[in-house]
Write a structure and sequence with these properties.
The protein is α/β, with parallel strands linked by helices. The protein contains seven helices and five strands. Helix 5 links the parallel strand 4 and strand 5.
């Protein structure tokens, strides 16, 4: 796998650091920034700025699909708020799969698999279905094993660390705990 190319969707720099360092000797990694529904826009910018900072510090490759499309997200999840995560996973992984296919990558994956707060089985299922659809392999690894390491690295590097997943609903949940 050492020469295999992997497109690594990243939601933020703190979730990327530990998986990146663990895989960089196994793959030719290119990051892929695409997170169109992070709310508010200032949060989106903070996360994007940290990814750019990490890219500069590590001289790593990252593709930016810099689209902020909160309205599309809201239209698609309105009255289906309990399914919002599945839509969000699909939207980001679908774009990653398309870019991986068009860029002739061997694999695609995501930092969503780093978070203890995401539904790994759903992410894995979506990734595997998209892999079949686009004929590019989905690389599944449970990156949660690097959770503490990622926190340590991001704190050592003084990275901005967000306090919620990203969408307007998760922001509300952060502040309005029932």
């Amino acid at each position: 796998m050492s020469n295999a190319k992997i497109l690594f969707h990243l939601c933020c720099a703190p979730c990327y650091v530990a998986p990146f360092f663990h895989l960089k000797n196994k793959f030719e990694i290119t990051g892929f920034w695409y997170n169109p529904n992070i709310h508010p826009y200032t949060e989106y910018q903070k996360r994007l700025d940290q990814v750019k900072r990490f890219q500069k510090e590590e001289s790593c490759k990252i593709i930016y699909k810099d689209e902020y499309n909160l309205e599309k997200f809201l239209r698609n999840v309105a009255f289906r708020e309990n399914e919002r995560c599945e839509f969000c996973y699909y939207e980001r992984l679908n774009s990653a799969a398309i870019y991986a296919k068009n860029g002739k990558f061997d694999y695609f994956t995501t930092t969503l698999l780093y978070s203890k707060f995401q539904n790994h089985e759903t992410i894995k299922k979506i990734g595997e279905n998209l892999a079949k659809q686009y004929s590019v392999k989905f690389f599944y690894q449970d990156f949660r094993e690097f959770w503490k390491e990622g926190i340590k690295i991001s704190k050592q590097r003084n990275m901005y660390r967000q306090q919620y997943c990203g969408c307007i609903y998760s922001e509300k949940e952060r502040y309005c705990q029932d």
